[in-house]
Amino acid sequence: MHAPPTRRTALSAGSVVLAFMATAGCANAPSTLDPHGPGAHRIATLWWFMFAVSAAVVLVVGALLLVGAVRRGRRGGPGEEPRWAHALMFGGGVAFPVIILTALWIWTLRDIAALSQPAGPDAVTIDVIGHQWWWEVRYPREGIVTANDIHVPVGQRVRLRLTTQDVLHSFWVPQLTGKTDLIAGRTNTMTIEADRPGVYRGQCAEFCGLQHAQMIFYVVAEAPPDYQAWVARETATPTSPTDPMALEGEQLFERAPCAACHTIRGTSARGTLGPDLSDFGARLSIGAGTVPNTRGNLGGWIVDSQSLKPGNLMPPIQLDPRELQALIAYLESTR
Ligand SMILES: [Cu+2]
């Protein structure tokens, strides 16, 4: 029952590591140690190798320290070390680290090259443009414009071309691959591929101002037929809603200040300061991952997005309750 304090400390340190590893697959805190694509697999493999080597070194050095402590003062003084002591120091202190670090260096260089230029053609090209604090997403070949949700086909290489409208941002989906910066006036490219359908959470990984932490996005990986169905939905000719309330909302949207900042396909709304809302109803979240996309949250967002995401660039808007209901009905009807 009464373990000595040192052992208890070691035990709790061990359980922290175990708890960390157990939560590594947790959906809300995506981890690089829960890889779901070839890029992330490479990174995770390298990580585990480094972890194993480091752990072995800690164990061996710890054991040698113990041996030294126990054998302390046995025999001999300075200058009387046995011959093998020098061999041990040279081997363990110079030769071994040089070999291991060189191997790691070569492995890392190889992975960097493979991650930045994966062999083979890309199935889809997507332009991602960072904004304070949301993600503009464009499919140039298909002519799709959306935001914050990035749909991709499973098992296919997706080329991302990354840039920013304002400050530095960084694109990171830990379960798919490493991070890449979005730099003004420059286009960085990266490739992602998901090996299983799912929703992979991404996050801006470069501090970009007040709402940096709420600059989240989701990579929605779908089986190719589902992805094709999504493309077909996105590129279908837009129609006005049939529900009278939603129709009223559409007209309001075109008149209200909304149209100055937002675009909706098939309407006169052409603003570009905020995210394109053509498919907003199908989006997972409101405010780049700030809150889930529900009617209640949408009402709260339209009336006063500042209370949900303080400092974001959409101002509070005065609307009477009927106008608000119509706008909600309309935006929820978009697909
Ligand atoms: Cu950012």
Give an overview in words.
42% of the residues lie in helices and 18% in strands. The protein is of the alpha+beta class. Strands 3-2-1-5-8 form a five-stranded mixed sheet. It has a five-stranded mixed sheet with strand order 4-10-9-6-7. A two-stranded antiparallel ribbon has the order 11-12. A hairpin with a 4-residue loop joins strand 2 (134-139) and strand 3 (144-147). The longest helix has 34 residues, at 38-71. The termini are far apart. 27% of the residues are buried. Bound molecules: copper (II) ion. Copper (II) ion is lined by residues 130, 133, 169, 204, 208, 212, 215.
Rg, Cα atoms, Å: 27 Å
Q: Which geometry do the CA atoms define?
A: elongated
Biggest β-sheet description? 5 strands, mixed
CATH topology of the largest domain: Immunoglobulin-like
Name of the CATH class of the largest domain: Mainly Beta
Overall mean pLDDT stands at 89
The CATH homologous superfamily of the largest domain is termed: Cupredoxins -  blue copper proteins
CATH architecture of the largest domain: Sandwich
Enumerate the spans where pLDDT stays under 50 for 5 or more consecutive residues: 1-11, 16-27
Helix content: 40-55%
Question: What is the helix/strand order?
Answer: HHHEEEEEEEEEEHHHEEHH
What class would the helix/strand composition place it in? Answer: alpha+beta
Bound molecules: copper (II) ion
Number of helices: 8
Beta-strand level of the residues, as a percent range? Answer: 15-25%
Number of strands: 12
Strand order of the largest sheet: 3-2-1-5-8
How many domains would you count in the coordinates? 2
Quote the distance from N terminus to C terminus.
Answer: 61 Å
